[in-house]
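Input record (Table S2, row 358):
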Amino acid sequence: MSKFRNFKMVDYVIYGRGSFDQLDEILSPNRKDNSPMIFLVDHFFKGKALTERIPVQGKDKVIFADVTYEPKTTYVDKIAGELKEEFGTVSGVIGIGGGSTMDLAKAVSLMMTNPGSSADYQGWDLVRFPGVYKVGIPTLSGTGAEVSRTTVLTGPTRKLGMNSDFTPFNQIVLDPELAANVPVNQRFYTGMDCYIHCIESLQGTYLNEFSKSYGEKALELCREVFLEKNTWDNESDDKLMMASYAGGMSIAYSQVGVAHAVSYGLAFLLGTKHGVGNCIVMNHLEEYYPEGTAEFKQMVEKSKVEIPQGICKGLSDEEFDTMINVSLGMKPLWENALGKDWEKIMTRVKLRELYERL
Ligand code: NAD
Ligand code: ZN
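Output record (zinc ion complex):
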């Protein structure tokens, strides 16, 4: 691998309350001949007012994405397959929703031009052709999926992203108004994904000034909304949407750490979702991130949310081993968190003890 990461970024960014209404104008020059734009919309918005504001024209299609489970390769293949069958090709894919919908939109865009199954491209730089034009419109802030070069998918054998230079969006629309009605728990779990990205990046061995600049800003914004303000208002949504963006930029040049590495094991075995899974783990990371863990607990208390406990109770040795294998497989995360000698620090026994505490 080359010494310095040379990463592809999102091409265009628009930010502001109400910027969603500029979508028609944004899409217009990207409409090709007679082929449609496909709007992949989080199923939460079915029947909601936002749906009426989608600038549908001609053969354009709105598909409601089922995000009950985090995106699977089979679901991506199904959507892309049906679109190819119905239209041959499309002008673009526009994802409107949380991190799951963002990832689905990126993956479907790539699968419109790449042969085979999305499972064939889970890994690093395996995608062969640029996808169709793709737009990300987050309605839930925290994952940073709007800026990242990956799309996390659960495949037949692993949970891993299609990580490539073709993966980032061509355009993102950051309109904090869209995040106005997220339930408190969900907003907290996904918001904490951003907070945890910051802690893991800022305390990591991969840190450089680029990551630090974005990570510190994102952390400051998280503290403002989750600790300093007493009520959640529009300004909180404005800030958290920018925190998500900056947190994503921070990890673009570093890596996540212990909470994510352990949470991936939970997701694989128990299907625990990304946001809440990270919170479950962060609750027990005093040894690795003492200040971050203490501050996280303050945020939990202030937001009055429940972090599930005891989720690993009664699991068998084999099940613990599965989680340990998945987690220890995330080598760059551990190396970022604990340094080059991480394998001496995070032994299987130690990791098992940590899982037993969750
Ligand atoms: P999500 O997209 O899974 O959505 C969670 C819930 O919130 C869903 O029920 C959804 O319908 C609902 N929701 C979304 N917007 C809403 C709104 N405005 N009002 C009310 N409800 C709304 O949650 P998430 O935490 O944003 O995303 C998690 C996913 O992101 C995981 O699949 C994870 O793997 C992925 N992820 C990807 C990256 C990346 O870089 N690609 C990074 C982190 C996480
Ligand atoms: Zn995350």
